[in-house]
Amino acid sequence: MKLFNLLLNVLWLIFCGIWMAIAYTIAALICFILIVTIPFGIASLRIAGYVLWPFGRTTVERPGAGAPSFVGNVIWVIFAGWWLALGHLITSIPLFLSIIGIPFGWANLKLIPISLMPLGREVVPTDERFGYARPPAPR
């Protein structure tokens, strides 16, 4: 399974991972420059790392994230989330047009909700297929 994830991650990196990670990093840098939006920049970098190497990992809702994460996600969608989601959508189109890229196009579409609402989520390792993890046990 780990070898399969490695192969998928390398192919993902070549076809779309590097471009989307660059987009998330640019969003993070803009957030860091604006100072008030530093938490958004940190979330953007966390998702950039996930988008760069997604197979073998997933995101789950962070327990206790609550209302501040919801409010932050609304602000995020207005200023950065929509164009990152659009980037995932546009990147998925050429992937769907090729036979080998269809699973990567589907994975790209699964990243759209995460790009729209990154706050209150954490990246965790998983042995399950992309995007289908159970939340971690309570601590």
What separation lies between the terminal Cα atoms? 27 Å
Averaging pLDDT over every residue, what do you get?
88
Task: Tell me the total number of β-strands.
Answer: 2
The major β-sheet equals: 2 strands, antiparallel
Question: Percentage of helical residues?
Answer: 55-70%
Low-confidence stretches: none
Strand order of the largest sheet: 1-2
* Shape designation: globular
Rg: 15 Å
Q: How much of the polypeptide forms β-strand, as a percent range?
A: 5-15%
- Elements, N to C (H/E): HHEHHHE
Indicate the multimeric state: single chain
Question: Pairing-aware structural class of the strands and helices?
Answer: mainly alpha
What is the number of helices? 5
What does this structure look like?
- By secondary structure, the chain is mainly alpha-helical.
- The chain contains 5 helices and 2 strands, in the order ααβαααβ.
- The chain has helices at residues 2-33, 38-52, 66-97, 102-110, 112-116; strands at 57-61, 121-125.
- It has a two-stranded antiparallel sheet.
- α1 (2-33) packs antiparallel against α2 (38-52) and α3 (66-97) runs antiparallel to α4 (102-110).
- The radius of gyration is 15 Å and the shape is globular.
